[in-house]
Amino acid sequence: MRWGNPYLLFLLILIPIFFILIGLAEHRRKKNFTKFGESRFYNFFLQEYSAFHWGLKNVLFVIAILFMIIAIARPRWNKEVQIVKKEGIDIAICLDVSKSMDAQDIQPSRIDRAKDQISLFIDQLKGDRISIVAFAGRSYVQCPLTDDYGAAKLFLNLLDTESVPSYGTNIGGAIEKAISLFGEEEKHKVIIVVSDGEDLEESAIDVAKDAIKQNAIIYTLGVGSPEGSTIPLKDESGNTVYAKDDKGDIIFTKLDINTLTQIAKIGNGRFFPITPQQSEIFEIMKNINEIEKKKFDSREFVRYKEQYKYFVIAALILLILESLIIYKKKVKFKRVI
């Protein structure tokens, strides 16, 4: 036998206390009688009182309390098997972690805002599996497909612009890496690219065309502003400097709406700029929820059956019986004068 609230069984200590109080009550009644009369007249003056029925009422009441305590402790026995079926969509999020994501044209920075958006997106998922691909000049799987959303957010929080040592931005490589995570026979493969859109390898359009042949749908989330910003860095002394190109000129990075829009259009998805209201996340979720979901697997859970109802029923029966017992008798007193 197992218990749902085993700590409530400590209340059983009240049961012997109740029996002791019942015994003390009978003893006190006799003691009080001796203050007014001799003890040999006790049974005569209490002819209307049935000690047996009074005791029986109390015993039934205490046993009912015993059963109620057992019931609220939720006893369990007999195992039962539950089968839970899971279904949803497989989603790969490609997060740009290149140095340009340190730009602060949106606060606190592009990379921090992107992580906030992805975290909110994960919070909206129900039954879907998610993976995270980090990319800059190269791509790698930061989190494989999982329905453990807490773990996915943990992996997400570990990402920053130092996560990929290879400089540059290769959106096409990230999409290829995302495609490799899905099964070949999957009907729908959702890819969400979160980037400022500066595809230095310029392969994203061609890769997106190949991806749709494999039933992929690509959404793009643009992080940054069209006006652009410099890229702050820290020098060896901890001072803020700005990233420069090979010619020594300060790099100015802008949100490339055109590239991200083309990728989404070719991928049968949509482009969304990241906004403070975060409404784009709910728009993407709305689109994803319209996609037919597949069944991942089914899992069996073994648990013990709740059996408290038997004790509740027994307690109620005892309380009803207790209420029907009358401990006063009808007695015809003889006239003595």
Question: How would you concisely characterize the structure shown here?
Answer:
The chain is of the alpha/beta class. Helices cover 37% and strands 23% of the residues.
* Average pLDDT number: 85
Instruction: Please provide the ordered H/E string of secondary-structure elements.
Output: EHHHEEHEEHHEHEEEEEHEHEH
Task: Give, in spatial order, the strands making up the sheet with the most strands.
Answer: 5-4-3-6-7-12
Radius of gyration, rounded? 38 Å
Q: Rough shape?
A: elongated
Put simply, the count of helices is 10
Terminal Cα span:
66 Å
List how many beta strands DSSP finds: 13
Find the structural class using helix and strand composition.
alpha/beta
Give the biggest beta sheet. 6 strands, mixed
Low-confidence stretches: none
